[in-house]
Amino acid sequence: MLDFDLAEMYEVETRVLNQSVKRNIERFPEDFMFQLTEFEMQLMSSQFVMTSKSKRPNSALPYAFTEHGVTMLSSVLRSTIAIQVNIQLVRAFIAIRQMVQRDPTNKLSELQAEMKELKAYIEEVFSDYNDINEDTRMQIELINQSLAEFHSDKIQPAKPRNKVGFIT
């Protein structure tokens, strides 16, 4: 983002923003901020219908800030919005750090332990099932046949029933 857009966002004058940057220049290495060249500025004005001349009455070339520079600006500016942005950034970083430190590794190790336990149980059940030898399977089949015959013997054919009611 360019300095004049950031100044508007943080509700400060561009001059104040640039002064704050110059006073804290050690906080803005090249990967945080750089100044546009004349050629880049001409390209920008040819690409956009609205030029930034109205926002920049002087002829100084604007500074461009990366996301790190925008974040750093919130810590060097003294506007209410900059202070609030900085507070929110600190809270977000703390929340992310806490989330990374506590949950994922513990949850992952818990899931891995549960998966090992479940796998061992399933292997035990299958090995018990496969341990039943052929003789035992034959005996179970004979018991099932005997139960089926016993059940079929118990079922009696329907006998004619006497009618219920008055005899005429």
Would you spell out the secondary-structure blueprint of this structure?
Elements lengths: L2 H7 L4 H10 L9 E3 L2 H10 L15 E3 L1 H10 L3 H52 L2 H21 L14
Antiparallel strand pairs: 1-2
Helix pairs in contact: 1-2, 4-5
In short:
The chain contains 6 helices and 2 strands.
User: Roughly how many Å is the radius of gyration?
Assistant: 41 Å
Strand content: under 5%
Sequence stretches where pLDDT stays below 50 over 5 or more residues: none
- The ordered H/E elements are HHEHEHHH
- State the total count of DSSP E strands: 2
Helical proportion? 55-70%
* Number of separate helices: 6
Shape: elongated
* Class derived from helix and strand content: mainly alpha
In order across it, which strands form the biggest sheet?
1-2
Sheet bearing the most strands, described?
Answer: 2 strands, antiparallel
* Ends apart, CA distance between termini: 109 Å
Mean pLDDT: 82
Structure explained in plain terms:
The structure is a single chain. The chain has helices spanning 3-9, 14-23, 38-47, 67-76, 80-131, 134-154, and strands at residues 33-35, 63-65. By secondary structure, the chain is mainly α. The chain has a domain at 3-78. The protein has a two-stranded antiparallel sheet. Helix 1 packs across helix 2 and helix 4 (67-76) crosses helix 5 (80-131). It starts with a helix and ends in a 14-residue tail after the last helix. The model has no long low-confidence stretch (mean pLDDT 82).
Provide keyphrases for this structure:
elongated; 168 residues; 6 helices; 4% strand; single chain; two-stranded antiparallel ribbon; mainly alpha
